[in-house]
Amino acid sequence: MNLVRCLFLASLIAVSGITSAAESAWQSSGMANARIVTPINGVVLGQSFPIGVEIKLPPGWHTYWRNPGDSGEAVQLRWQTEGLNVAETIAWPMPQRIPYGPLINLGYKQQVLLTQRLIYQPTEASSGFVTINLAGRWLVCEEVCIPEEADLSLRLPIVEQAEVNSVLAMRFDQQPIPQTLKAGVEVQWLDTETFNLTVDLPGLSRENFQEVYFLPFEQDVVDLSLPPEVSYEDSKLAVKVRILDADRPSYDGLIWYQESVQGQAIIAGFEVPVTSPGSSSTVFDALQYLLLALLGGLLLNIMPCVFPVLSIKVLALLEESAGSVPQQRAQGWWYTLGVILSFLLIAGVLMLLRGLGEQIGWGFQLQNPLMVTLLAMLFLALGLNLSGFFELKFALGTPSKSRSSGFNAMMGGVLAVLVAAPCTAPFMGAALGFALTHSVTEGLIVFTGLGFGMALPFLLLAHSPNALSLLPKPGQWMITFKEACAFLMYATSIWLSWLLIQQVGSTGWLLLAGACLQLVILIWFWERFGANRWGTRLIVGFLVAGVGFTVAEIRQSKPEASPQVTAQAGNIKAMVYDPAAVADAALEGPVFVNFTADWCITCKVNEAVALGTDTTQALFLREGVRYFVADWTNEDPMITQALSRYGRVGVPLYLVFHPDATNPVILPQILTETMIAQALFPPAQSSRSSVNSG
Question: Environment class of residue 196 by beta-carbon count within 10 Å: exposed (0-12), middle (13-18) or buried (19+)?
């Protein structure tokens, strides 16, 4: 039997040797030894690949987890090759609880393999090889603690297709990485310092859970020496935790436990999201964010997507000015109802998905190529409607052709919210962050305020006959104005087409163009021949099926990852956002982090008038400011978590880190050159506390 096992192992080694893994030589950093290792035999340009750093420690020594515990310092890995960037942050294995006197540290004994994914896309032609350079730093402790550093390197060929060493790949895959629970997690805040964390685990056996603890990802959040109160009921595990710091927007962490398997203690656990307590907000806080929501809703009306719709509704109301005042007021309230209900529906979907553990925020629909496609087609159809190519029977209404009903006005409100989807107005970021990180009731109130703010101009006009009388009398100018508004719709459709190219490439744009062509033919057939002939119905059916098929093809297209390469923003070198790299850079000087997305209009305006100007670029270059870009165009859980950490659920967000400050400066959503300069280099008399985002 032993002979058979030996032969099997020999054959396995022989087979695995066909594809050689790559590893650097072991290098001593003092007490520890470290090396770089990867299961692939080469790097494919532009494709992410797995890589790991293995650290071996002498008996009795340990190093630290992402949250080192009551003392210590987390392992830091800095990849230094030009064109090499982080595609996925470190996948931290389950840590051990390491008591030392009254303190509890969190880390690893004997050895640990820290894995992540990188991506290599050089700005210049490749020489056929890439040398991966790493500057590693770790604190190793026994009775004394020694900070150690090591510079490691691994040379890999550039290949068309990488082969994988199955044995080492299996080791990467079988790392004890905690699973993230996306459902069945309930957080109930008992007061501002205590919460109950309930996890639904079907098949739960109390015997499996020993020494249950909650380990937050950030340091100095809970007293690790005190085990939380744990209870079991049916398939649910409940953990009562008292926190030390009640000022954080989130307390994500691990449910950590030991289980006995055949007499051996095995460490296990799973990640759980914990948002900040809704009960911590005061009535003043709620009123403050409600006011921000009202202002944000008001400003949505001047966004290029929404303004034409509001204008056409005002024209329809103007045409009805000859009617009774109660009828005009009813139109205003029906429109307001449509806007508010639409925002509440969006709020419900967002809260539901976030409650299930999805890392999403405002604008998440624009990270989906299918939704971008449908919105581009919608704006094209609205443009054709405003150009007079066909008449939309509801929602917009057509001056001098149809009178608005209550349903028409309400659908106009729904349409206004729908076309507002690509827009994020000033003041909305802070309000939405509050709404989605507090209680459901507070969140719905804020979303109601956002909707009411957006509907308020139309509602006031409906209640102000004198204001309507200031506008020109109905006439041909209304038709001309309506047709002119169509060009804003066409421009928005073009912009969404460009956004689709960023997500799925030129093939996606070609499919969208085909779908739009079929949509135009469909509208033409419907308007030209009507819906009463069987031949027309048959052709229309074929066209509808063609549009549906083309859109489905776009849905099947795989989104292209945001380019994880070092880019240029004018003369400023823009580095891809990575929390560890930002923390390292902030030790050496000021750091500016730009959370942005291609579909964020406010972001693009700020980049044009404040960030990309000669003045700001000269300041960054002269003072050596490190500039990081967190591109949220496509879904990125790491960026979503970072936004949540700073109380935001959408972009833009601008942060400035200083070497001597614990927390970053949070800048307003509308930037100026002066704001950026003052945040980076504040006057001596000013404090470096966070700037309220307005």
Answer: middle
Q: Supply φ then ψ for residue 146, to 5 degrees.
A: -130, 115
Alpha-carbon gap, residue 200 to 190, rounded angstroms: 19
Residue 5 lies in a domain: no
102 or 309, greater pLDDT: 102
Q: From the centroid of its chain, how far is CA 170?
A: 30
pTM: 0.52
**What domain range includes position 592?**
567-680
Residue 24 lies in a domain: yes
Residues 6+ apart with CB under 8 A from 645: 248, 249, 250
Summarised one tens digit per residue, pLDDT across range 20-75 is 668 899 999 999 999 999 999 999 988 889 999 999 999 999 999 999 998 888 99
Closest to 589 in 3D by CA, of 554, 626, 564: 626
Sheet of 253-261, strand order: 179-180, 264-272, 253-261, 210-216
Alpha carbon distance 578, 589 (integer Å): 16
Structure tokens at 623: 């003072």
Chain segment 179-209, per-residue pLDDT in tens: 887 667 888 887 778 888 888 877 666 666 7
Structure tokens at 175: 């790392």
Amino acid at 144: V
Dist CA 56 CA 29 (whole Å):
10
Based on the fold, state whether residues 518 and 599 are members of the same structural domain. no
Please report, for the domain that includes residue 58, its CATH number: 2.60.40.10
Mean residue pLDDT across the chain: 78
107-161: pLDDT as tens digits: 999 999 999 999 888 877 677 889 999 999 999 998 888 999 999 999 999 998 8
Tokens representing residue 272 in the block: 């759980």
Q: Provide φ and ψ at 199, rounded to 5°.
A: -125, 130
Rounded to a whole number of angstroms, the CA Rg of the chain reads 29
For residue 471, tell me if it sits in a domain.
yes
Look-up of token digits 């079907």: 202
Closest CA to 626 of 587, 662, 661: 587
Token readout for 26 is: 């072991």
Residue 355 scores a pLDDT above 60: yes
CA distance 680 to 16: 53
Task: Dump pLDDT digits (tens) for 394-447.
Answer: 555 444 344 446 777 788 788 778 777 656 666 776 777 777 767 778 888 888
Residues 275 and 286 in one domain: no
- Residue 11 is assigned to a structural domain of this protein: no
